[in-house]
């Protein structure tokens, strides 16, 4: 048995197959992938990695399995899946996932190949575990897939607490001890036991508060958009293909971006935190139909049009359109008066938080500071946005903290 | 300057008039009044006092005043009010406030007499402070009264964090540093600066989660109801009058309850945590019109009727009817796009949390365990309650923790 | 199973015999006994009780038993002893222990009678546990007695962390998770496994830093001495005898002190924190032979002589002579290179910390502020103290914090 | 004013010259230099950077300056030095400092050139600050240099707390609030005010406990030695010179090590945490005279001899000889009875901790696992070590945690 000291869960015990899995190159690689990507440009303490998060998810999975009374081969399989659930992540975690997915058709939780090959596959088979069945769990399939990737999964319980701990933001402090303890299966579905509507709500609330404060902070979004743009160029204009990029760690990617003339300018800007500014920051109701659903090529075309109209280089415009808000926790299942109900059915908070997500949603147009006014005007015109009042380029920007641009509220 | 070590704010500096005020008997008395009364029967670590809370409120008031650019005599007055804001509390804080208010017409924030008299009055006058004007601030009057007792007051910022810290519950962790830093006055009203809708929401959310978990936990409510009953008897059947009771500390009250034959049985039950159980636990929609608004005498009459019908002693029935839910934070003011708005206007959360409060509201009928089924049946009948399913007396009760009766969800 | 939320260990699970024991009046009484007595007059947040500490000790004992591979009846017995280990404490914990011990011959860990009688005895016997054998463990007897009361006991592991948490002092943060995990038995002796010299040292260091900062802070000592004096009078001049006092809780004692004219003045001073000041504060080398070993009567005689010479009432002088420093941790056993060694043998820190204890030791003479100079002069003379420089009555005193009188260093 | 959220100090306010300095490329580079280098291979959460540490040092310096009553140009100069004090660090902080120092003659605190050039020089001059005088402070020169780099500097106060927070180890929790508050100047020397012997001791104790647990953990030392070896080869066998290496960030270095065939094998081992094992782990008394003082060339010669005798490749042997233990805190100055004393004069702990350092000191010989027994035997012979008992290669190694090799105690 190994014991690893963790800044969130204190001591984590690693046993059996997990003990060998952590020594594989695939797991060790996660030490070099930041959990929150460019969020560290907003919160300087947020340098934690997918490795420590994976240990935490494994730890909570072990507790949940004990609570559910599961041991033997099934428990071993779930533990392996918990530990391995993030090995499919590319550099900077989710930041470049859309770029690689467009070309490989793969998200980070599609790990059948990764688990079958190399050291991981060897370890799994040596412990009589079928890599494919572990990969199924990672993808959320099957009864116990719900525990790894579902509305009540241990992934979320770890990351909310861990991201709050490392950013210093006080909003992610759910009671994971209680959440894990109250899990049970009813008719094959993972549910929270009677008396836990509020425990389920607290998970929802934590994510609703962490989202604008951390995950979708405007500076994190701008730097992520710049990184994504650089990643696109790396694939389009150099020998690096999407599958290769996906298997890099943060060090590989930064080195590649710095060394190619096609991407060096982006790398330098990210290194110096010399970021684009917001030229437009628009609420969902001000965005004409069709734009939110536009595909990648259409977005690129908009960018080129905006640049042309503003008289700037095409590189000087980034259009950042998030998808429509979703709220998967709303289907969390809780026991109420002896019957299983979905949280959305039971809790008035679910609709309210969905409403809050809509009000926090923002379309962003970013550009270098010296052209943001011109780009902003052109973007309003090209996109047909209907915004009253001053352009957001007037708003101070680029702070390291949320203190004056907490969520979407800082738009003018 | 004194420096006091606090488990929440670390070092608290005490200067000027505050330094002398803390040495008065009135302030020292607060060391012997528990902040959360009978909540310590649910959360054994919740033994913190009004004294440390008062220091914390003073500390946050000093920070807020610095942020607002206020110093001189006005700052001194506000600091005195912050430190003294709870000297009017009776034993067990809010637990007996309704009992004494019914007889004295006074709530704990009505402190004009207390501040004018004795050592506190002497200290205030020696520092050229008018006791009446300090008492006005405590009552929430005037521009700076909002900072002491209002929707955005430092009282709430301290108690949410402190109560969470001492109970061990993870839900009260607001960002008080940010809240204090973002305060400003606009047209005489205290508002949160631009970009703080979510900061304001987090205050609301914290209270919404702390409420059922801590403040209105069913065991806390049962023990509070028993204490209140004992307090009533002390006033009605012994020489102790309401004004005297109100000036006691926790030690005086417990000693008085133990020593009088009229109240000793209640004291023994509270000491041994041998509490009444829930005979009925009814949602707001099941309670017939008029009962929520019933006055004290009507409630007592209901209790007697229920006891008669159940064939038990009148002491064996307690009817506990909370007031209608309120949500004062909904009128918090925040700057949005350059104008002052109330939070309720701006945030969809406000309505949702109000809805949640309604769904958590419960009428309780309590009685000794051995008569709870009979009392429950009689209460349904006498009160005309319309409850399907089993009586809540079937539900396990009396645990120390929320873990199986979190909020109102544990009713059957 | 019950789960109790604790501010130190988060969730504590209570099962089996422990679940019934916590509901006994003897255990519930511990809710009303402050862990650190008058230390709350120095650190206002230090209001934690013997009850929560007992739960914590039980929690760590369960972890240690699991680590040691112990279950069945033996584990049940040790768990019961862990939970019950402090039921023998009188009001204000250790503060009055010398007073009652002098008359009853009993310390708080002599609990054979207490465990055999009443509800506790009934519960133990109902679970096939012999109360006497549980009491033996509480007294530290036998192999597993070491775990409850020995150099490496779980009692100390809980209180160092808990007292640090509640005072806010950063020095008690030992790694109890590691300590418990590294315990084993070698030849019937409890030892820390190989590689833990430093783990053992950290326990020693934590106590060495907590001692002057918290446990022996001068203001805590002064108020404790005043409480002890009041307790003496209560026994000597009223109908309360030592055995009765020993069974009181904090509420009983405060009520008794307030209501008797013999002790009311002390009660009022403690309530108002209107404490005696240091008239003398002398290092160990300045104290003539014999005084440290003097018995109670001799001390009282010294006090009378000092009062006579100073021309003050005998009540106005308290002579406070601590015992010689001891350091029980020095005999903690650790494995080093395959053999069991005592920590004192292995670690140069042990001698150094013993030296530090000597340099921190202080004899105190306390009196009301207005007579402290006279009392100080008289005490120097009567006790034959050899102190250069000004009397300590010149030194500012009575602060709530250690910030200017940290340990013994504040003497002039 | 900017406000940055920090996981240790919560909110850090950045004003004036500091606000512009943090935006320079030199400061932004510190985001990409891990504070503890290879320690993250032992404690996976220890990914914090020199950037956040620099903000913390700036924050404490501002508090200390306020306490010392310093403002105006002098304060600005000290604040700039605090923020910039680590810009001279190379990749992986101290890990490669000996390698570059041997060739450039420079340690990380020699920053006269760095502060005079580029954006930093421009900002300093624009704020009327002389870069040379700021660099003097960084080097510890002058009265206020003591605050930046001295026995009582704010650097240490930040890193002890921060490193403890991020590793999860409970030993670094000094009371920095109190330390900063108690600083004053006496005759031009920085001292802690009366009553702070123990505050000073706690700083010493924290470092003494952190040292073997974190900074000199055997796995951290092994991986650091491997990185150092790789760095040597990079300079010796590729076009990278020492000055260039010194200006790299962690990303540059890892990329360089991976891409050169001379160093790729080391990079792969570090990436996969496939580390050398201890072949010898010897106490200071077992090491013959002269070896500790041996220069770099002699050490290399020893390595070649050991490899030859063991019949392995020269790369397969690393000899790691730490310098003699030092304890700079022993000259910290504290006021005692009105005079300035050095801590070593006053506190028996200083000698004891010096003794502990000697007992924890270890010479290490490392090699790949499959040759460690042969290398161990050869090393004993070549170095003339006098060790009884089994070679340490028998001891389990390579754990992520200290839990079984805490400090030097795990040697056989």
Strand order of the largest sheet of chain A: 5-9-6
Distance between the ends of chain A: 56 Å
Write down the CATH topology of the largest domain in chain A.
Hypothetical protein af1432
Rg of chain A, please?
22 Å
Annotation, overall tally of beta strands of chain A: 9
Order of helices and strands of chain A: EEHHHHHHHHHHHEEHHHHHEHEEEHHEH
Principal-axes geometry of chain A comes out as: globular
Number of helices of chain A: 20
Strand content of chain A: 5-15%
Query: How does CATH name the architecture of the largest domain in chain A?
Result: Orthogonal Bundle
Poorly predicted runs of chain A: 393-412
In CATH's first tier, which class of the largest domain in chain A applies?
Mainly Alpha
Q: How many distinct domains of chain A? A: 3
What's the name of the CATH homologous superfamily of the largest domain in chain A?
A: Hypothetical protein af1432
Report the structural category of chain A: mainly alpha
Major sheet characteristics of chain A? 3 strands, antiparallel
Question: Oligomeric state of the chains?
Answer: homotetramer
- Tell me roughly what share of residues is in helical segments of chain A: 40-55%
- Name the chain pair whose interface involves the most residues: A-D, 48 and 48 residues
Protein name (chains A, B, C, D): HD domain-containing protein
Domain HD (chains A, B, C, D): 50-160
Pfam families (chains A, B, C, D): HD, HD_assoc_2
Organism (chains A, B, C, D): Halostagnicola kamekurae
């Amino acid at each position: 048995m190994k014991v690893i000291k963790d800044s969130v869960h204190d001591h984590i015990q690693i046993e059996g197959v997990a003990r060998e899995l952590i020594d594989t190159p695939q797991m060790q690689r996660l030490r070099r992938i930041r959990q929150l990507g460019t969020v560290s440009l907003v919160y300087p303490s947020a340098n934690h990695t997918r490795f420590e998060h994976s240990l935490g998810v494994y730890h909570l999975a072990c507790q949940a399995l004990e609570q559910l009374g599961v041991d033997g081969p099934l428990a071993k399989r779930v533990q392996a899946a918990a530990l391995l659930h993030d090995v499919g992540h590319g550099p900077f975690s989710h930041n470049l996932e859309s770029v690689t997915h467009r070309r490989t058709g793969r998200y980070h939780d599609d790990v059948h190949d990764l688990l079958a090959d190399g050291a991981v596959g060897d370890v799994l088979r040596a412990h009589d575990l079928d890599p494919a069945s572990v990969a199924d769990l990672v993808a959320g399939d099957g009864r116990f897939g719900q525990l790894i990737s579902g509305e009540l999964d241990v992934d979320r319980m770890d990351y909310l607490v861990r991201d709050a701990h490392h950013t210093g933001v006080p909003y992610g402090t759910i009671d994971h001890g209680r959440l894990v303890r109250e899990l049970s299966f009813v008719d094959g579905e993972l549910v929270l036991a009677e008396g836990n509507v509020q425990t389920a709500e607290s998970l929802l609330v934590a994510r609703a508060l962490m989202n604008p404060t951390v995950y979708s902070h405007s500076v994190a979004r701008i730097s992520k958009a710049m990184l994504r743009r650089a990643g696109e160029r790396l694939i389009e204009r150099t020998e690096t293909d999407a599958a290769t990029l996906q298997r890099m760690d943060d060090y590989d990617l930064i080195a590649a971006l710095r060394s190619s003339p096609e991407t060096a300018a982006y790398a330098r800007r990210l290194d110096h935190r010399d970021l684009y500014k917001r030229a437009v920051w628009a609420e969902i109701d001000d965005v004409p139909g069709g734009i939110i659903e536009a595909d990648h090529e259409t977005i690129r075309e908009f960018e080129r049009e905006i640049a042309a109209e503003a008289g700037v280089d095409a590189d000087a415009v980034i259009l950042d359109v998030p998808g429509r808000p979703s709220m998967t926790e709303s289907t969390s299942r809780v026991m109420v008066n002896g019957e299983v109900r979905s949280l959305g059915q039971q809790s008035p908070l679910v609709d309210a938080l969905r409403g809050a997500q809509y009000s926090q949603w923002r379309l962003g147009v970013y550009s270098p500071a010296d052209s943001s006014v011109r780009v902003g005007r052109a973007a309003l015109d090209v996109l047909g946005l209907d915004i009253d009042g001053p352009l957001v380029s007037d708003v101070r920007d680029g702070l390291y903290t949320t203190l004056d641009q907490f969520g979407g509220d800082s738009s003018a």
